[in-house]
């Protein structure tokens, strides 16, 4: 083939995962911060900031998971048995959270249960995603093109740290989103939280970054061997610049800056993962080309993706354009 279809599809799957993380991340973050809203009106306003877009954000999760199954079937067959527990927990939590969006407005006596469902579903789904990520980063045991580990290999100190780190990162996305989308008491609360959560996020990113190279000699070689170290140093340097923009935006009340800086922080973290992983789809043993479907299948699916992905991007951009600006508690968006 003139084009490396497996590489192209790896890029598409990576893009879908990144899109899910940065889009669904902020509405999961709003759910994580939900109990910190002091009044019912504040809770209603916080939920209303994500109500028009949350379900569309999860399209990327379906695309990433479905794409993995279709174009990298061996990776799917190896990763799923290794991560069944956190993935099932995540999906169940997302179900409860999604139902809360609909049922919370239809009851008064049981409203506290749906508040708990919204918060608990957001928290548990995020933590499960972080644990699954940590388990993948630390490596999956493969023997004879099949998962060779145990039922609880995913549960380690490192995966728990990554779970906590992702909860903190999503909470930061949620706080900065509320700063950008609200005024009044909700913005004031989110503004105070964003500073503290921002420091915690940076500390946890640093901790995970320090631990990751020592999980696998491949990672250590990628990050610290010359001349790779020269390029790898650009990532932490960029993180420092983004942190400066984040703090400046908070201090000068430039409401869009902290959110955009947090998005950039996630993108840089994702790039760091890519530096560690590539060309492995299932580290440390299966590369992109090892797990890819036949070229005929990849080409057939790529034709569909070239139609589907622009459509998803178009309606997502349109939804965010329609619901741009601050949310007015009395009259909707303005």
Helical percentage: over 70%
Total number of distinct structural domains: 1
Secondary-structure element order, N to C: HHHHHHHHHHHHEEHHEE
* Mean pLDDT across every amino acid position: 88
Give the C-alpha Rg. 20 Å
Tally of individual helices? 14
Strand order of the largest sheet: 1-2
Shape: globular
Strand content: under 5%
Which parts are unreliable, with pLDDT below 50 for 5 consecutive residues or more?
A: none
Roughly how many Å apart are the termini?
51 Å
Number of DSSP-assigned strands: 4
Protein model, in words:
The chain has 334 residues and is mostly helical. The chain has one domain. It contains 14 helices and four strands. The strands form two sheets. The chain has a two-stranded antiparallel sheet. Strands 3-4 form a two-stranded antiparallel ribbon. Helix 1 packs antiparallel against helix 4. It is globular. It starts with a helix and ends with a strand. The mean pLDDT is 88.
Short description:
With 334 residues, the chain is mainly alpha-helical. The protein has helices at residues 5-33, 40-50, 54-57, 59-71, 73-103, 111-138, 157-181, 185-211, 217-224, 228-232, 234-251, 256-277, 288-291, 295-322; strands at residues 280-282, 286-287, 327-328, 332-333. The chain has a two-stranded antiparallel ribbon. Strands 3-4 form a two-stranded antiparallel ribbon.
């Amino acid at each position: 083939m003139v084009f490396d279809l497996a590489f192209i599809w790896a890029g598409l799957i990576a893009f879908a995962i990144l899109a899910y993380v940065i889009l669904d991340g902020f509405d999961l973050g709003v759910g994580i911060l939900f109990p910190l809203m002091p009044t019912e009106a504040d809770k209603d306003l916080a939920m209303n900031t994500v109500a028009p877009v949350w379900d569309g954000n999860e399209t990327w999760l379906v695309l990433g998971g479905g794409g993995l199954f279709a174009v990298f079937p061996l990776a799917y067959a190896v990763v799923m048995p290794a991560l069944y527990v956190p993935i099932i927990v995540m999906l169940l939590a997302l179900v409860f959270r999604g139902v809360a969006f609909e049922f919370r407005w239809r009851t008064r006596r049981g409203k506290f249960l749906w508040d708990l469902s919204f918060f608990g579903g957001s928290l548990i789904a995020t933590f499960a995603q972080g644990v699954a990520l940590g388990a993948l980063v630390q490596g999956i045991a493969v023997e004879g093109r099949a998962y060779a580990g145990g039922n609880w290999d995913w549960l380690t100190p490192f995966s728990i740290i990554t779970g906590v780190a992702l909860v903190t990162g999503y909470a930061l996305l949620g706080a900065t989103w509320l700063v950008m989308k609200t005024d009044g008491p909700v913005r004031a609360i989110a503004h105070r939280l964003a500073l503290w959560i921002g420091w915690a996020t940076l500390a946890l990113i640093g901790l995970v970054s320090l631990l990751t190279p020592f999980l696998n000699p491949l990672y250590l070689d990628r990050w610290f061997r010359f001349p790779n170290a020269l390029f790898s140093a650009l990532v932490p340097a960029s993180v420092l610049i983004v942190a400066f923009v984040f703090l400046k935006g908070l201090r000068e009340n430039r409401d869009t800056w902290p959110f955009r800086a947090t998005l950039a922080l996630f993108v840089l973290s994702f790039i760091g993962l890519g530096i560690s992983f590539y060309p492995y789809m299932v580290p440390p043993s299966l590369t992109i080309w090892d797990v890819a479907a036949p070229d005929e299948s990849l080409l057939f699916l790529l034709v569909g993706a070239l139609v589907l992905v622009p459509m998803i991007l178009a309606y997502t951009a349109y939804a965010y354009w329609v619901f741009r600006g601050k949310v007015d508690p009395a009259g909707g968006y303005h």
